[in-house]
Amino acid sequence: MSRRTAVIVGAGPGVSGSLARLYADAGWNLALFGSHPDAVGALADDLRERGAAVDHEIGDLADVADTDDKLRSLAERAEEVGLLHFNPSVFREADALELSVADLLADVAIGVGGLLTAVQAVVGSMGPGARVSATGSMAADQPWHRAATLGVQKAGLRNLVLGLDTTLTPSGIRAVSVTVRGALGSEGAFTPDKVAAAIYAATWREDADWTPEVSYEG
User: Fold this and answer.
1) CATH code, 102
2) Which residues touch 209 (CB under 8 Å, ≥6 apart)?
3) Which residues contact 39 (CB under 8 A, 6 or more apart)?
4) Which of 7, 68, 135, 182 has its CA 20 to 30 Å from the CA of residue 84?
5) What family does the Swiss-Prot or TrEMBL record give for this protein (predicted)?
6) Is 185 left (phi over 0), alpha (psi -120 to 50) or beta?
């Protein structure tokens, strides 16, 4: 019997790593895409020790053509893509008076446009019952003025996921953005493991209970 593959975009330590380990422990194989070879390699080794087959590619989401090629290749090599998870965002400390239009657009191209690139590259390898998930943030509703692009990215990401869910539903694929309403930390309700568990749970709800956004309050 084939094992489903979870494609993790923005793979590395933190929430994406915790989520990848959840899927490995649930019997999935993993296809990782990230920008830092050491971090992706360390995660891949950990997942293999858990019994998962792991494939990976290193790339920069800012390079759309290269990202598209590498994600399509990952998806084509997978037995069956059952999940695409999108995790990346860009933190740039600059308020709206310091920020240039070019910097704003560059960050949105990664934090929002990266999801568009990923879905278009992978969706051809996904079938009914598959899921698209994304790590959202309370910055979409409560942005910090000193990280002006992050709020725009997370608001745009959520909006794109809402549209994707409507677009993909006729093919049996659902999309969800999980809005994390707290700051990640090493203790408490917002550790990477707990946030990843909330994303996993939101992703595999029944269609009758489906909403394309879920808030994780901790």
Assistant:
1) 3.40.50.720
2) none
3) 11, 12, 13
4) 182
5) Belongs to the short-chain dehydrogenases/reductases (SDR) family.
6) beta
* Separation of alpha carbons 113 and 109, rounded Å: 4
Which residue, chain included where needed, has tokens 């999940």? Answer: 83
Tell me how far apart the terminal alpha carbons of the chain are, to the nearest angstrom: 37
Q: Which domain holds residue 10?
A: 5-216
* Vertex 138: Cα angle to 136 and 144 (nearest 5): 120
Q: What is the pLDDT of residues 107-123, one digit of tens each?
A: 999 999 999 999 999 99
Q: What is the count of structural domains for the chain?
A: 1
The closest alpha carbon to 25, from 48, 57, 1, belongs to 48
- Token readout for 83 is 């999940």
**According to the model, what pLDDT value does residue 1 have?**
35
Please say if the pLDDT value at position 69 is more than 90. Answer: yes
pLDDT digits (tens, 9 = 90+) for 77-116: 997 899 999 999 999 999 999 999 999 999 999 999 999 9
